[in-house]
């Protein structure tokens, strides 16, 4: 047991992982004060300056260059800064802590479920509006249930599982860089007409980064009850969704709980046709709570498995 403790102690990457999780559990960053919000706003201001081309190919090129302008200098500065830090583990801890976020998702879910349960549409719309790009004004209780479920699924998938996966691959810089890429894709989402071609580079970059972690997490979600039905739905429905990683995860959760997800959505006053995913049950307050419970347990299992794998890889435990 003492040898195991010393091996764990000497494994800085594993200590940083659990240290960040513990710090986030005790004292999470308020969403309003998170650096991602400032990054998001700066991205929108940059797009206002450079997203001025009516030509499709020029707009795509402008979006690609804008994405590089945001991401490349940030990564260069972080990589150059790391050797200058007196304690590398604290550097890794700081940026993993900035990247990970599940407490704000839990807080949102509790408030959102309570609002849906008492059929308070205005409160539910107010809670979800900062988290999604779609128009919230026309959403019914059914639409709010779907939007809340999808938001919860993607928040756990990207802000926790994706961040931890890229921490294992690239350390704190990898985790933080991934989170900033996700924020850029959300800020320049092509689902909104003004970013339709401009944001393609940002979305494709995140689709590539999401491909492995979200699919692995989807398989973890599917394991257990209704595994055959979930696997069949993934095979049938995932190809109809534009992003492969989110497609698997949304279908896996929808199939597991037989919930109806996806479907048409309104962005900036215009209806966007999206494929229907999952089962046939319209999500209500209780179903959103079930989604949160399912994902929380699977997320905990992911953390345990990743910790064991990191121990085996880095220290031979």
From TrEMBL:
It is found in: Cell membrane. Keywords: Cell membrane, Cobalamin biosynthesis, Membrane, Transmembrane, Transmembrane helix. One of its GO terms (molecular function) is threonine-phosphate decarboxylase activity. Pathway: Cofactor biosynthesis; adenosylcobalamin biosynthesis. The chain crosses the membrane at residues 59-81, 160-178, 198-223, 295-314. GO terms for cellular component: plasma membrane. It comes from the Bacteria. InterPro entries: Cobalamin_biosynth_CobD/CbiB. One of its GO terms (biological process) is cobalamin biosynthetic process. It is a multi-pass membrane protein. PANTHER family: COBALAMIN BIOSYNTHESIS PROTEIN CBIB. Belongs to the CobD/CbiB family. This is Adenosylcobinamide-phosphate synthase. It comes from Vibrio brasiliensis LMG 20546. The lineage of its organism: Bacteria, Pseudomonadati, Pseudomonadota, Gammaproteobacteria, Vibrionales.
């Amino acid at each position: 047991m003492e040898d195991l403790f010393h091996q764990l102690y000497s494994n800085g990457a594993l200590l940083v992982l659990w240290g960040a999780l513990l710090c986030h559990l005790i004292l999470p960053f308020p969403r309003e004060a998170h650096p991602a919000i400032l990054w998001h706003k700066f991205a929108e201001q940059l797009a206002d300056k450079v997203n001025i081309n009516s030509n499709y190919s020029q707009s795509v090129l402008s979006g690609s260059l804008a994405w590089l302008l945001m991401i490349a200098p940030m990564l260069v500065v972080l990589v150059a800064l790391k050797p200058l830090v007196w304690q590398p583990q604290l550097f890794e801890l700081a940026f993993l802590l900035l990247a990970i976020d599940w407490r704000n998702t839990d807080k949102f879910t509790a408030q959102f479920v309570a609002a849906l349960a008492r059929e308070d549409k205005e409160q539910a719309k107010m809670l979800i509006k900062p988290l999604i790009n779609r128009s919230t004004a026309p959403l019914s209780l059914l639409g709010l249930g779907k939007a809340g479920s999808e938001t919860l699924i993607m928040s756990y998938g990207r802000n926790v599982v994706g961040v931890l996966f890229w921490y294992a691959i690239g350390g704190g810089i990898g985790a933080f860089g991934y989170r900033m890429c996700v924020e850029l894709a959300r800020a320049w989402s092509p689902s909104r007409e003004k970013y339709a071609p401009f944001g393609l580079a940002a979305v494709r970059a995140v689709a590539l980064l999401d491909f492995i972690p979200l699919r692995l997490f989807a398989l973890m979600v599917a394991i257990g009850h209704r595994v055959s039905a979930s696997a069949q739905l993934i095979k049938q429905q995932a190809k109809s969704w534009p992003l492969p990683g989110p497609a698997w995860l949304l279908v896996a959760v929808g199939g597991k709980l037989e919930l109806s997800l996806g479907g048409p959505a309104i962005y900036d006053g215009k209806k966007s046709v999206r494929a229907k995913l999952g089962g046939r049950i319209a999500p209500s307050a209780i179903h959103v709570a079930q989604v949160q419970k399912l994902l929380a347990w699977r997320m905990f299992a992911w953390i345990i498995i990743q910790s064991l794998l990191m121990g085996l890889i880095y220290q031979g435990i």
